Structures are given as structure tokens and as C-alpha cells.
Amino acid sequence: MDDGSCSIASGTSLASNFDVIVLGAGISGLVSASILAEQGHQRLLVVDEYDHVGGNHIDCTCGDYTFDVGSFIFQDDSPLLRHFPELLPLYIPIKPVFGRLNPQGVVTRYPFSVPDDLLAAGPIELSRILLSVSFARVFQREQKDARSFARYWIGARLLKRSGLEHYLERFYGVPAEQIDINFARKRMLWIKEHASVSTYIRRLMKRSATGPTNTQLVRPREGFARLYGAAKQRLEENGVTFLLAAKLERLERLEQGLQLQVGGQRFVAERVVSTIPIPRVQDLCAEQSREDLKTVRLFSLFFSFSGERGFGQSVLFNFSQAGAWKRLIMHSDFYGSTNGREYFSVEVNASQAGESVDLAGQDFRRHVAANNLFKGDLRLEGSHSLATAYPIYTEQAGERAANAIRSLRAFGVESFGRQGGFDYQPTARVSTQQAEAALGFS
Ligand SMILES: Cc1cc2nc3c(=O)[nH]c(=O)nc-3n(C[C@H](O)[C@H](O)[C@H](O)COP(=O)(O)OP(=O)(O)OC[C@H]3O[C@@H](n4cnc5c(N)ncnc54)[C@H](O)[C@@H]3O)c2cc1C
Q1: Residue 380 three-state SS
Q2: Ligand 1 centroid to 280 CA: how many Å?
Q3: How far is CA 387 from CA 293, 295, 298, 405, in A?
Q4: Domain boundary among 166, 190, 210
Q5: Same domain, 239 and 179
Q6: Whose CA is nearest to atom 4 of ligand 1?
Q7: Is the same domain home to 272 and 398?
Q8: Tens place of pLDDT per residue across the chain (442 aa)
Q9: Are 338 and 287 found together in one domain?
Q10: Residue 102 is assigned to a structural domain of this protein
């Protein structure tokens, strides 16, 4: 992990002046600093409460193993690399195969498999599935939440048989009917794409004409610090100052600009760009009332293993009826075994495991044993809990977040990003594009 170097003397009572202060050194904060520097701002300060750059791209080293707090896969055509080209040679290229444990206990293709989800159902169930899709498309036109959205596209029967219904609940931590439709329309388009015949034909034609267009990548073996350290170094060479492991205390409006108080130091800037959680920045501004925006707490369980794992895919999603775990990634497929053992990270939505890492671990062991997976010596090497893994869009959270962002803007803070925009940005690519759009970069 990064040690959080900062060139500013501490304990001074004089405010240091900057053109822009960026709160958060995740992808959104790093890209913002890169854009602002390119736009001619010479005095830039990036502040983060974390002790490292890269935000929630977090790894944990346990003994000889380095795990991640999720499954992080990147691409070589990401716009992030336009800002930080030095990252590209640091990544490890991979050819990941994605799988899914389905409700029938079969490890199959992700996200759908025609042989396993449709043909293996038998002629009677297959007819029912087709009838239910036709019925949904004709009679269930009203889509009011994530569940009715998914039902419209694949029908109630396939939703259940494929296990997507169970997966959605595991993902959000609340029943899919409590997830706002605007979120489903914006962020569950993959269901529509996989259910649309014309999209399938288009994709098949494109694939046969051009072949795969990008390379999949993972972080260097030793962790994210090596990767994002290179981005930090580039920014520092362009005059950006970093203040990491910072204790954010207060953000005040001055007659001109804003003043940030951090661990006894004061920094004044004409602009403040925030990519940290909205409630956190509201806490810093005395004039702002705090909006209660729910996020998923994600447990990551770190296992090493020796034996018969029972599947060949590197990323496995849990679409079965039972088991709290959501997804796992086999790091050893990419970096090689360590001490003769495979190792992997398992993601669990904490609300699905009684908010207890112990329960999550026990549940995982029970569930994989019941499905004949990981037969052998399975050891829990460690775990991690991340409070703000992704936003939950219930009770008009999208609208409430938009109001909070408007109010922060009126105060003088430009808030965007996965945390700052309360926006489920699924990839670093999307976060980069959103930061570019927010700062008028083309
Ligand atoms: C589990 C997981 C898996 C992902 N998988 C992929 C993937 O495979 N490929 C891909 O491209 N993208 C993936 N993403 C998404 C991608 O990483 C994000 O879109 C992007 O990193 C968001 O960056 P950000 O700077 O906006 O926000 P973040 O990195 O989420 O956070 C920005 C800043 O907010 C502050 N902050 C955040 N959480 C807290 C907290 N709990 N307490 C205090 N401060 C906090 C910190 O200052 C942090 O630096 C994944 C994200 C997660 C969480």
C-alpha cells in the first residue's frame, strides 16, 4: 500500500492556496486531476482519507497471497489509459472464462446457457418458458422495478430457472422489486441485450467479422500500489500534490472559493471537485444536511485451496438458490499457485450473511460442499469489509442523490464519480468517461 507522501509542512496555520482541490484519489479523482492539469490548472491538490491511491481498488496481502476485495478485470482499450499510458505494461493480460453455478447445481456459461437453461429443461418446461416470455412481452408492459424489468425481458419462468432472480437479490441485498426502475433501465441493459434476438445476431456477425477487439487485464501480482503508484508519479511530475491518509475536518465557503481543513492544516481553492461519498462531503460542510443514501457492504473472503475445485472457469457467479456468496475470482489462474495452493477471493453482500464474516465463511463452505466444489483442503486466509461497495437504488435514492449533488453544486462543490455521483459505475472505463464529461474534457 502507498505510504501517503505529502510535500506540505504540517502544523502551519497559514492556508495554502490551490486552483482546485480534488477529494478522493480513486479512478475519478486521478482522472479529474489529470484533466484539470491538462486544462491548465497548475496548483492542484488531491486529498484522500485512504492511505493509498486507486480508491476502492483494494488488495490485501495475507502471508504469501495477495487477494482483491472483488473481481477486478480491466481492458487495454480503456480511456483511463489515455490519461495514464504507463499503466498498460504493468497489467497482466488474461483470457478469463466466466461461469455460473445455476439452480440445478451445474456450473455453466455466464450469464445464460441455451443448452443448460433451455434445452436441458425438457420439452414441457421449455414450452412453458417460451410461453412465459411471450406472455411477459405482450401483457406485462409496465416495468416498475428491477424484477418486472427482468421479467419483461426473459419471462418469470426463465428468471427463476436461470437463477437470475436469486442472483439479483444477492447482488442488491434487497428483493429486486424494491429496486427503482430507473436504475434497472440504466444498469441492467445486459439482460435486455442477452434476451434480444437482433442483438445476438449483430454480435455474432461482428465477432465473426472482426474477432475479439480488446485484451482483458488484471493488476500486477504484487497489488494495486504498483499500478496506481505510476499514475500518482505522473501527476506529481505535472505538479499535482497528494495528501493521503488525511483527516478531513471541515469545508467552508469563503467570499471567494472554499477552504478545506485537514488535520489542522487549511487549504483554499477556487474550486473543489469531490469524488468521495456524498454523505461524507455533506458532513464536512456545516451548511449541508446529510442525505441517507444506502450502499452495499461487501465482505471479501480470502481462501487458499488444494484439491479438486470442480470447475475450470476463473470467475464464478452464484446463481443457485442457496448460498450467500455472489461471485468468486481465482487469482491463482492469473498469477500461478503459491506454495502449491490455488487462491481466490469470494464476494458476499454482508446483508445476505447476517452482517457477519464468520457466518459468511461458514455459509460458503457449506454451500460449495453441497455442490461438490472445492473438495480438498480449503483454508480461510483472511477477509475484508467494504462499506461503500456500490449504491442501492431504493426509495428514490437516485432522485435524492441528484438533489444532494445540486445542493453541493450551489455550495461550490462539484460532486461526481461512483461515490460522489452515487452512480453505479460498473467499470473504471465508465468512471473515466463520466469524469471527462463532468469536467468538459473531449
Ligand atoms: C467490488 C468491486 C468490483 C469492481 N470490478 C471492476 C472491474 O472488474 N473492472 C472495472 O473496470 N471496474 C470495476 N469496479 C468499478 C470501478 O472500480 C469503479 O467504477 C471506479 O473505481 C470508481 O472510482 P471512484 O473514484 O469513482 O470511486 P471509489 O474508488 O469507489 O471511491 C473514491 C473515493 O471515495 C472515498 N471512499 C470510498 N469509500 C469510502 C468509505 N467507505 N469511507 C470513506 N471514504 C470512502 C475514498 O476517498 C475513495 O478514494 C469495481 C468496483 C468494486 C467496488
Answers
A1: strand
A2: 15
A3: 12, 7, 6, 21
A4: 210
A5: no
A6: 72
A7: yes
A8: 333 333 344 444 556 899 999 999 999 999 999 999 999 999 999 999 999 999 999 999 999 999 999 999 999 999 999 999 999 999 999 999 999 999 999 999 998 898 998 899 999 999 999 999 888 888 877 788 888 888 888 889 998 898 988 888 888 888 888 888 877 777 777 777 777 655 655 665 665 555 558 999 999 999 999 999 999 999 999 999 999 999 999 999 999 999 999 998 999 999 999 999 999 999 999 877 888 898 999 999 999 999 999 999 999 999 999 999 999 999 999 999 999 999 999 999 999 999 999 999 999 999 999 999 999 999 999 999 999 998 988 878 889 999 999 999 999 999 999 999 999 899 999 999 999 999 999 8
A9: no
A10: no
Q: Can you give the pTM of this predicted structure?
A: 0.92
Residues 197 and 250 both lie in one domain: no
Answer yes or no: do 289 and 299 share one domain: no
What domain range is 316 assigned to?
A: 295-391
Same domain, 299 and 377: yes
Ligand 1: atom nearest CA of 75 is 11
3-state secondary structure of 241: strand
Domain for residue 258, yes or no? yes
Report yes or no on 11 lying in a domain: no
Nearest atom within ligand 1 for CA of residue 300: 1
- Any atom of ligand 1 within 6 Å of the Cβ of 231: no
Hey, which of 56, 216, 242 would you mutate to test ligand 1's pocket, going by the most ligand atoms within 8 Å of its Cβ?
56
Looking from the CA of residue 416, the nearest atom of ligand 1 is 26
Residues 6+ apart with CB under 8 A from 234: 34, 84, 86
Of ligand 1's atoms, which has the minimum distance to the CA of residue 27? 25
Query: Rounded to the nearest 5 degrees, what angle is found at the Cα of 418, between the Cα atoms of 412 and 424?
Result: 130
Does residue 365 belong to any structural domain of this protein? yes
Domain count, the chain: 3
- Tell me how far CA of residue 375 lies from CA of 90, 94, 310, 367, 405, in angstroms: 34, 26, 8, 12, 49
Instruction: Give the closest residue to 20 by CA, choosing from 240, 275, 290.
Output: 240
Q: 248 CB less than 6 Å from ligand 1?
A: no
300 lines ligand 1 (CB under 6 A): no
Nine-digit cell at 196?
A: 434480444
Cα of 47 from ligand 1 centre, angstroms:
16
CA distances from 226 to 59, 332, 384 (A): 11, 19, 20
Q: Name which residue sits closest to atom 11 of ligand 1, judged by CA.
A: 427
How many angstroms separate the alpha carbon of residue 254 from the centre of ligand 1?
31
Final residue in a domain of this structure, among 155, 188, 210: 210
Q: Are residues 374 and 406 in the same domain?
A: no
Q: Please give the grid coordinates belonging to residue 106.
A: 451445474
